Amino acid sequence: MKADMIIINASNIVSCSDVQGSGIINDGYIAVKDGIILDVSSGNAPKELKGENTTIIDAHGKTVTPGLIDAHTHLVHGGSREKELPLKLKGVPYLEILKMGGGILSTVRNTRSASKEELKSKAVQSLNQMLLHGTTTVEAKSGYGLDFDTEIKCLEAAKELNTTHPVDIISTYMGAHAIPEEYKGNTQGYISFMVDKVMPYVADKGLAEFLDVFCEEGVFSPEESRYIMKEAQKLGFKLKIHADEIIPLNGAELAVEMKAASADHLLAASDEGIAAMAKAGVTAVTLPGTSFYLMLGKYAQARKMLDCGVRVAIATDYNPGTCPTENLQSIMTFACFGMKMTPEEIIKAMTLNAAYAIDRNTEIGSIEKGKKADLVIFNAPNIDYVVYHFGINHVEKVIKNGNIVVEEGKIII
Ligand code: IZC
Ligand code: ZN
To answer: Which secondary-structure segment (H or E) carries 331?
Structure first.
């Protein structure tokens, strides 16, 4: 069989296959056919794979990884929150800004007043940045509309972008992100509204695959979160939870109890919660960019999680308040210095382990025969170099479904 594309002479292929370690292949090749990986190995590609129309890419001196997967973002929203910087510098805590009607609620006002087209064009700018920096699949949460029309507007925007933009988008309904101002003091009323009105519609229209809850002091309690998740499960949603981000509330334990695909943040997770996640196979999505940006002086205990056997993923948490960046390469450096993870652990956390967090581990996340040909060629001799030389974009090419979509710093489709 002739391949459509062969990457030859790749100095470093970080395959991230589902084995111990990150599966590094030195001086190898990757063959692609019909958007799928046909073969990956060390050495030279067999001659019979090369046809007249085979595209050959020489990756001598380069590092090839699976397309990066950003398993936690708040992609679709209006406005920005740079005006909160002085408050942050004065030390006003994040949950205090939210209580004052700022934070998430300020983004809610901007998202409600934006049209679907405006939201889409802003989100396209973000998706372009993600792709240019090597992200080929992204999870996208709603949660800045809270009312029916705006939540649906945001989820429809993400669904439409999934069909037009090369980055694949996996949607999550996150009405349980904050209590909207019109339900202030009436959390129960807001929960009933979500459960009775919004969730059935979202499920019926196939607008989201996952449901996520911000289980946090002053937002949704563990009891409220459990109730929302149980109702979501009845409607067929898979689950995620913003767990133990700031105040310890045994969110990790709740994720295990509810058989969530992932528990995210986990800075304040208990040792028991971490052990239970390992046993149950709940993926931990850590967000070190958020720890940095909230100036918490504290990161998720990724080393402890890894030692316990938890599958650890890393994502940006891209959102306008607590991590305004689309760039997973910057997050690699925060993960390394903040959570003491090695570059090999980090790349696996942004590929295969991230694929587990969005239930796509059989299709993407590693360079293995039969998986989608979503690949990044970094202009770096090894993956350590990408983490070490921070704040710049090391991407040379991005390949999505077997097609080159980024080359020389530009999107070329
Ligand atoms: O807009 O502040 N933590 N949700 C939960 C966020 C951070 C996003 C935001
Ligand atoms: Zn988040």
So the answer is: helix 328-339
Pocket-forming residues, ligand 1, beta carbon under 6 Å: 74, 103-104, 107, 214, 242, 245, 319-322
Query: Where do we find the tokens 């409220």?
Result: 224
The CA 4 to ligand 1 mean position distance, Å, reads 43
| Domains identified in the chain and CATH numbers | 5-66+365-411 (2.30.40.10), 68-357 (3.20.20.140)
Q: Which residues surround ligand 2, an ion (CB under 5 A)?
A: 317
Mean pLDDT calculated for residue range 183-190 = 97
| pLDDT score, position 20 | 78
Q: Which of 285, 205, 206 is nearest to 243 (CA)?
A: 285
Tell me the C-alpha distance between 104 and 95, whole Å. 10
Question: Quick check: 57 and 6 in contact, CB under 8 A?
Answer: yes
**pLDDT tier at 357, thresholds 50, 70, 90:** very high
Of ligand 1's listed atoms, the one at least distance from the Cα of 107 is 1
- Atom number in ligand 1 closest to CA 214: 5
Side-chain-side CA neighbours of 368 within 13 Å: the count stands at 15
Instruction: Output the CA–CA distances (angstroms, integers) from residue 141 to 22, 76, 159, 327, in the order listed.
Output: 29, 7, 11, 17
**Nearest-atom index, ligand 1, CA of 74:** 8
Identify whether the C-beta of residue 252 lies closer than 8 Å to the C-beta of residue 270.
yes
What phi and psi, each to the nearest 5 degrees, are found at residue 406? -135, 130
Angle at 243 between CA 194 and CA 339, to 5 degrees: 145
Kindly give the distance from the C-alpha atom of residue 321 to the centroid of ligand 2, in angstroms, as a whole number: 10
